[in-house]
Design a protein that fits this description.
This protein is mainly alpha-helical. It has helices spanning about 5-30, 35-60, 90-115, 120-145, 155-165. It has one domain: Ferritin.
Length: about 170
């Protein structure tokens, strides 16, 4: 890349440092988790983050001029097994934390893209954000299938009350 704005460079340097820590943490999680499907999602996240490192290093390298794109996420089907939950007690906190990590990475990549100046660097970071969002959703589906998710629902009456309160916004 011939020139790189200082803002883009600084944001990628920060991202690279974070990626090192997150990948190290995810590798440790791989060693602990028992459920093979959870291990596959963690491996996917590690592989995706390594591809993000490669892309950022290519942007930073002044001698690299080839066109490059983020590789797409491989499509995977979730198949959560019915297992003895007692033997898988660490899997729950690990998937909750990995889910949060993917959400934070998606948010950080998107916010960075908003600040970046170079169009192709910005585009790559938007795509990185979407990939992390997809990974977050894979964790979320895993959590739901295991029955580890709890959400309270709002009543129909409360929804109608809210709707009526805000419907005048359509007339602004």
């Amino acid at each position: 890349m011939a020139s790189l704005p200082a803002m883009d460079h600084a944001l990628m340097v920060e991202h690279l440092s974070v990626h090192e820590g997150v990948i190290t943490k995810l590798i440790k999680y791989q060693d602990i988790v028992k459920d093979m499907e959870l291990r596959r999602i963690i491996t996917l996240q590690i592989d995706v983050m390594r591809s993000h490192i490669w892309i950022m290093l290519a942007f930073i390298n002044p001698d690299y001029h080839d066109h490059f794109e983020l590789p797409p996420l491989p499509s995977t089907k979730l198949s959560v097994s019915n297992t003895n939950e007692k033997n898988y007690e660490n899997d729950k906190w690990i998937v909750m934390e990995a889910h949060n990590t993917a959400a934070n990475m998606a948010s950080e990549n998107f916010h960075s893209a908003l600040k970046m100046k170079q169009e192709n660097v910005q585009k790559a970071h938007k795509e990185m954000a979407l990939q992390q969002l997809d990974i977050k959703n894979k964790y979320n589906h895993f959590i739901e299938r295991k029955g580890w998710d709890y959400r309270s629902n709002i009543s129909t009456q409360e929804r109608i009350k809210t709707y009526l309160h805000f419907q005048d916004l359509l007339n602004l």
